[in-house]
């Protein structure tokens, strides 16, 4: 499968997962929604304490869900720099948050 088709498939799958998550929140209690909102606020506040390059790549790759190619074009970086910086940014964020981001 070509790289372009793979990226389109990844985006499609991400949108599908986000739709499923959004539907879950429709049935969430106000307490669960508040907890989620507080967690998001803590995440963004922690991200702002990271190096600017880490913050930028986390926003584009993690929040806006741009592909590596799209992110490299926006930031005017090589694709390998995007991948490496994103990996390092996730590790730094995880360390500052005091545990795993995937729990």
How would you describe this structure to a colleague?
The chain has 103 residues and is mainly alpha-helical. The protein has one domain (3-97): Winged helix-like DNA-binding domain superfamily/Winged helix DNA-binding domain (Arc Repressor Mutant, subunit A, Orthogonal Bundle). It contains five helices and no strands. The chain has helices spanning 3-26, 30-48, 52-63, 68-75, 79-97. InterPro entries: RNA_pol_sigma70_r4_t2, RNA_pol_sigma_r3/r4-like, WH-like_DNA-bd_sf. This is RNA polymerase sigma factor 70 region 4 type 2 domain-containing protein. It comes from Sutcliffiella rhizosphaerae.
SSE order, one letter for each helix or strand:
HHHHH
Biggest beta-sheet profile: none
The CATH topology label is Arc Repressor Mutant, subunit A
The percent range for strand residues is under 5%
Low-pLDDT parts are: 14-22
Percent of residues in helical segments?
A: over 70%
Can you tell me the CATH superfamily?
Answer: Winged helix-like DNA-binding domain superfamily/Winged helix DNA-binding domain
> Which CATH C-level class is it?
Mainly Alpha
Mean pLDDT: 79
Number of strands: 0
Pfam families: Sigma70_r4_2
Protein name: RNA polymerase sigma factor 70 region 4 type 2 domain-containing protein
């Amino acid at each position: 499968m070509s790289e372009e088709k793979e990226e389109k498939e990844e985006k499609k799958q991400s949108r599908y997962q986000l739709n499923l998550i959004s539907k879950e929140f429709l049935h969430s209690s106000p307490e669960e929604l508040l907890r989620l909102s507080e967690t998001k606020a803590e995440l963004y506040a922690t991200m702002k304490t990271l190096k600017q390059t880490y913050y930028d790549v986390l926003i584009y790759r993690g929040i806006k869900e741009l592909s590596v190619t799209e992110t490299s074009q926006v930031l005017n970086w090589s694709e390998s720099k995007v991948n490496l910086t994103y990996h390092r940014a996730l590790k730094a964020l995880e360390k500052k948050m005091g545990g795993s981001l995937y729990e």
